[in-house]
Each structure stands twice: as C-alpha cells, then as structure tokens.
Here is the input.
Amino acid sequence: MNLKHKPLLAALAIALLLLPFATDAMLGRGWVRIADFALLYIMLALGLNIVVGYAGLLDLGYVAFFAVGAYNYALLSSPQFGLHWPFWVVLPLGALLACCFGVLLGAPTLKLRGDYLAIVTLGFGEIIRIFLNNLNAPVNITNGPQGISMIDPIRAGEFSMGGEHQLFGLAFPATHLHYYLFLLFTLLVIFVSRRLEGSRIGRAWMAIREDEVAAEAMGLNTRNIKLLAFAMGATFGGLSGGLFAGFQGFVSPESFSLMESIMILCMVVLGGMGNIGGVILGGVLLVLLPEALRNGAGPMQQALFGKTLVDPESLRMLMFGLALIAVMLLRPAGLWPSTQRRRELSPDEMISHQEQDTVYDNSK
Amino acid sequence: MDILLQQIINGLVQGSVYALVALGYTMVYGILGLINFAHGEVVMVGAMVALAVSGMLLAAGLPPLLVLLLALLVAMAVCMALGYAIERIAYRPLRNAPRLAPLITAIGVSIVLQNLAMIFWGREYHAFPQLLPGASHGFGGAIINDVQIIIIAVALLMMAGLLVLVHRTRLGRAMRAVAENPSAAALMGVDINTVISVTFMIGSALAAVAGLMVSANYGIVHYYMGFLLGLKAFTAAVLGGIGNLRGAMLGGVLLGLIESLGAGYIGDLSGGFFGSNYQDVFAFFALIAVLVFRPSGLLGERVAERA
Amino acid sequence: MTTANNPLLELAGVGKRFGGLAALSAVSLHIGRGEIYGLIGPNGAGKTTLFNVVTGLYQLDEGNFTFDGVAYSRCKPHVLAEAGIARTFQNIRLFANMTALENIMVGCHVRTRSGIWGALTRNAAARAEERAIAQRARELLRYVGIDRPHETLAKHLSYGEQRRLEIARALATEPKLLALDEPAAGMNATETGSLKTLLQTIRASGITVLLIEHDVKLIMGLCDRVTVLDYGRKIAEGVPEQVRRDPAVIAAYLGGEAA
Here is the structure.
C-alpha cells in the first residue's frame, strides 16, 4: 500500500468500525442489516470478479455456489438432520464443497466459447435451484420450497452470534456482531483477490481474457488456469453462502434464483470489471440503491400526488432497471474501471491508440 | 403408445413457440454477438397487447377470427416498435463498448419492461379469451386441438418465410453480409444501422406471434411469462447453434420434445424418484450434454479460431 | 550449416485438411539446429497452417513430426511451448490491455512454478521468482529494442514495436525454436533492417529460427535454407539462391502457365 494513503485508510477503517452505530443513530435501525447484506454481496461480487473480471469467463449461474455453501451449512447445522456441527467446520467445508462443484462444472465446459459458457453456467445454476426445490420427496433432504429454518447461529464456544452481547459497555445486537464478522471476511476476500491479481496466476488469467489462443501458444495450460479461476470464484461463493445461512437462520431455494446471479454480475460490470475497488462500489450501490428507492418510491408519490398511484415495489424495480441502463450508457467500462482501462483512454496516448485500431481489427 | 404420441404433440406445440422466440435471439446474436436478454419480455408485451386489443374488440362485438387477426397485427406492430426502440436506446450507443456493457443494459431493459407491465396490467394472471373454435380431434389415441394445429402451422409458415427472406432477398443478403463482417459490409454500401434495426423488428414481430400463441394455448397471460420462456428459447438457440436460423428452429422443436417426453417419462425411468417437476432440468441437462460433445451446438459451424 | 543427422524439427508426410480442402499434404522437411529456415509461398499456400500444426493449434490429419527427438503428433499448444517451440502471429496477438512488461512476464509463465500458495503468502520463493522474471522481462524489452516506459499498454506501442514485443514474449518462453509468422509485414526498410539484425543476434544466441516471410530480400539475406509451399505441397527446398531460380517456384509465383 502506498504510504500517502495511510491517513485516508485510517479514516476509512474508523468509519467502517463505527458504521453500525452511526447508521443506528442517523438513519434508524434496519440499516445495519442492509450493511450486512452489502458485505455478503461484496464477497460474492469479488468472487465472481475473479471469474468474469480477471479470467474473462462469463458465468451466469454463480449463485449456485452461494447456494451450495448455504445449504451445506443449513443441512449440517440445523434440526433438519439433527446435526449441529460447529461453524468453523461447516464454513470451510461449504467453501470446499462449492470449490468442488466449481471444478465439476468447469472441467467439461470450460472449453466452450464465451457465450456458450454463459448459458451452460446459467443452466447449471437453474439445475441446482430446481434440485433444492424438489429434493423433499420421496426422501426429504432439502425440505423443498419451504426451505430449512432454525439454522444454528454462528457460535464460538459459549459465544453465540444469534443474540445481543454486552461488550466494552456497549450493546451489540446480532446484526452488529455479524457486521464485524462479515467485515473481517470481506477484508480476507479483498486480501486474497489483491494477492492473486498481482501474481503469476493473475497474469495468466488476464492473458487468457485478452487472447486465449496467444496465451495457449505461450505455454499456458488454459484449461487448468481457467479451472483455477472457476474454483477460486466458487470458493468465495461457498464461503459467503455459509455466512448467509448462519446469519439468516433460514434458507430456501428462492434466495438462489437466476435474478441473484444477474444481480451479482451487474455489481461486477457496473462497478468496474477487474478492479477490486470498482466491484466493491458496485456491490454497495446495488444493495443500497433498491433500499433507498424502497424508502423513496412510496413517500414520493404521496407527496406528489397525495396518494399511492403505482405499486411502490414495481416503481422501485423500474427505477433500478433505468439506472442500470443509464449508468452503462454513460460509463460503458463501469463506474470505476481498472487503471489499465483508464490508461487506455488517457488523451496523450490517443494518437497511437487510433493508429493501432487498424492492426487489431485484422486479428478479430 | 397414445401417451407417447400425446407427449410428442405437446412437445411439438411447445417447441414451435420456442423456435419462434429462439429465432429472435439467434438473429440478433448472429449480427451483433449480443445476448438480447430483453427478448423474452418482448414476447410478454406481445401477449399483453394482444390481450388488451382482443378485449376491446370483442367488447365492440367483432367476430372472434377478425379480432384474432387484428390483435396479432397490433401486437406485431407494437413489438416491432419496441424492438426498434430497445436497439436504438440500449444497444446502439454501446456497439463499441466492452462486451458485457450491452448485456447489462439488456438486463436493465428486461427489468424495466417487466415492471412496466406489472404497473400497467397488475400482478395477477389474466385469462386470454378463446378466439378460436378450439375443437379437439382424436389422432391415433392422442388429442390435438385447433389451437395447437394452428400454432404448428403458423410457426412452420413463419420459419419458411424467414428463410426465404434471409436467403432469397436483397435485405436478407445484407443481413447475412453484416453478420459475416460488419465493416466490410459497410464498405460495400450496406447501411448497417438499418439492417440491424430491421433485424430487431423482424425478431420482435416473431416474438409477438409467439406471445399470442402461448397465451392462446394456455389461455393465460402474466407479466412474468416472458422470463422463463425467453430463457428456454435462448437455450434452444444455443442448443441448435446460436447465430444459425435452422439451428434455432431445430433447437426449439427439440427442446420442446425433450421437455415434454422427459416430463412424461422421468417418473417411470427413475422408479418414481424424480417427478415431472424436474421438467425444467431436462432442458439444461440436454443443453450441457450437447455442448460438451458439440461445443458449437447441433448445427453451429465449427469456428476454428484462426491464428 | 545443416545438421541433417540430428534435426531440431522434422516433419514427415504432414497433412491437414479442412473439409474437402487439403491445406497441407505430404509435407516433409527438417530444420537443423541453429538454422534460420524460411518458409515461403503464395498466399493460401499453407504456411500459417504449417505453423499452427507444429505449435499445436491444429491437430494434423496425416503424418507426424518430431521436435528435439520426441514425437508430438497430437499435442496441446502449451505442451509444445514447454517443449521449446515459441511463435508469433501473422496478425499481432498481444495481450492488448496488459503492459509491455506483463506481456513478456506471461511468456515466462511456462518456465516458472509458483502457484496459489506462493501468490497468497508471497513467500521468499515467489518473491524471488517475480523479481527474476521482471528483471528478465526488462532485459528482453531492451534486447528487442523497445525503449518505452514498462507500463505502456501493449496496444499503445507502435506497430513495429508490437511486432518486436511479440518476439520478446516468445523469447521469454526460452524456446529452442522461434517460429515467426511474417515478422516484417508492414515494416518500413529501416525497421526491417533492424529486425534482420535482431534475428541474427537471436540465432547467434543458439536459437533456431523458422520464418514465414514475403519480403524476398529479407529471406535471401537471412535464411540458410528455404522451403516453398504451393497449394499445401512442398514444391522446392534448398538454399535461397537455388530456390529462387527453380522453375516450379517461378511458376507458382507467376501463375502456373510457365511450368
């Protein structure tokens, strides 16, 4: 990290630590929970960023790995089978299992060209969801559409995160405790992403994204390297799935629909593919924007027309869709593109850039 | 035996609808290399417009067949305008943007259309009026009704028409040229923008037909109907080899058959373990299986990456 | 100059067809260690197809080839790169949005080992390896004569620089055989001249060079031996001066009736 940024980072750290209490005081209760979800989504988006942003593989079924992690936790740590394994076993197991699913899906399909891969991953996501939805008969495994409830909270020894605790003379409700836990895991995921990005492996991913044929000719075993990206992404998905299950205490197939995969993809692309900061920004915005619209859509109509003309939920999603379109039209490379893309557009290099266009057109 | 035949008939009907929608995906993909995620919603809009028009005209006392025809024409016109607008607003400005940018605007358009439909028409299921006699015919132990016969016939007609258009006309030649190499086509004097607009409009018109067909067949219209249908149709297009018109038709029909036969027989085959609620899984398993062995789909050309 | 008894690359009856079209048929040749070997022929003669076969991008349909004494008839490109064949492309295929330095470092991939664990812990071995390849990449940039900030994106280099960066990236794989697909295409006389010097330096360092080229002057002044392909067949082979006078070659270039 750059030394110049030290004071800034310190301020950011303090702000993040105080955030739950600040939102409680300023915006009202309920926002910490939203922050918790934002952190979960950031972890998911960073995981997908490895697959889409670094390796350039379009995955439209990413939520499947989230589901695997969540159901792994739910099945091994709830009254469903009467198993109550501790979270420090279940959580890594979920990540590992998701990783295995990633390899299982990737091994036969990663040779497919871009958009064929997209639809296959989409199909895989749907297959997982349909199985979760239907594996309640004849043998009840997943409890079908009802989902699994009363999942054990995340606990270490006597300390359960399911309830409120007094620490340092302050009251920490469950949402606050989860916030700090998720923050910790998010930092871990950021750390891992950063380290991978600047490594031999990260370079290989980007080379494959840029030109797979050339990468192969330079001696990259593209199949294995792509598989590695898939497995890493899936691991992050499984990890956040476990955290999600422990936090919610309830999972059902509804949480793992195609729309979720699409949402996560939107976070990655809208924020700025391949740039960790951009992806985090995308995650925060796409969690906050619908919430802000939720609070805005109803009352705004009241104020303007004196009554609710339009279903606020529809209006909220409508504005959300319009926002997606508008942002992409205004900033096609995302809100905060990676430095490389920004350099691409810097004015002093425009001349040679234009000159090169012709060269690259030939190779397409 | 009669069950088998019945499942085949159901599969063909469903497959015809998939095929029509899949054509819309495949044409756009062939020309722009873009997954037009909003295409399923265009189908839904077509169905909704047809519903609204036929409701009004029936109330005005017009004969059902005329109503059907007018509803179809209005739905096609509206969808063509919609397809044109979508391309102009959400895709054209991004033609040289990073590959995933138009995918996100497509998702945005899909969300917008869905929620607009919900605002206009509500969340509830609407009954679609019976505009055709709907008489059923026994057929080798299976039953097929007029609506189903007409669906298959119209789908065949549309597909034949499209093939003639693409392979026998000046416009079709321009479309193929743009699909092959847009910049070369432009140099040869083809107006790319017009060709792309027309492609979107043709695809949308087919979507309107498909929307009306599904609604007439099931008698139900719903703001969310386009999503899964679009997904299946896109699957069908990929199954057949995306970008390939005949592939989309084959993929659509095949997918309809796979689903219908799968749903009918999976219970027996798995000893009762899997029920017909796994119907949607077949489509995707079939897709994965096909792509593992034929990475470019059934009729897709092998794109040998040229070094 | 030729070392026919122990060739580096040896093709025996290699054939490759696309549908009904025979892009290559029964091509046999051998390239000795330390040679600069030219591959010429009219457009569509199968030169690039031959490149794609020996670099594993295409699987051959008939015959076989051995490289450094080992048979590689059906192999993935990365296996052949590891064995010591590196190439450039006719239409430059750099990693456009990566820096010049990174492009070369990707070339080092096949000769380095650190994996996930090294990336996460940045342990001593991984750090040492990164330092070493960054150093090597800087040397290679100098070696091929690119005098630009290392973080310049590949796509922002000039055309000639891009061609040379591709060569540097190929050299980073530490090849025994460097296969260049029209390296002088689009270059002016000065650039071609410095390319010629570069290739001679590369050969002097012990690397064998296989060259597809249209620039006859470059071929004549550089190559020890050349093979001429026409319609997928070998129509002549030998030292440049002799091939140049071969009636079959003249016919192929002039359009057939002279034969």
